[in-house]
Amino acid sequence: MFSNGQMIFGVIFFIVFAIIIGFTYQKDFKLHKRFYSGSIWVLVGFIGFILSIVAIKFFFK
Predict the structure, then answer these.
(1) What is the average per-residue pLDDT within 54-61?
(2) CA–CA dist 4, 8 (Å, integer)
(3) Which residue, among 52, 1, 58, has the nearest Cα to 10 in the 3D structure?
(4) The whole model's pTM is what?
(5) Span 20-49, mean pLDDT?
(6) Backbone angles phi, psi at 44, to 5 degrees
(7) pLDDT at 30
(8) Cβ contacts of residue 32 below 8 Å, gap of 6+?
(9) Is 24 in a helix, a strand, or coil?
(10) Burial code of 7-33, b = ≥16 C-beta within 10 A, e = fewer?
(11) Residue 36 carries which DSSP code?
């Protein structure tokens, strides 16, 4: 499906991209803690909403 060159490019791209994202996250960590301190509750609410939809679909099949 993919040639050797495409596979090597994909792996190298992923590794470099992950490293750049990691450095950027570390650089902005203090800023994120200050401005997005309560955002975990949005994530919890979103996951709860998705789980409730799955539960409704499972029980009312």
Answers:
(1) 89
(2) 6
(3) 1
(4) 0.54
(5) 91
(6) -60, -45
(7) 85
(8) 25
(9) helix
(10) eeeeeeeeeeeeeeeeeeeeeeeeeee
(11) S
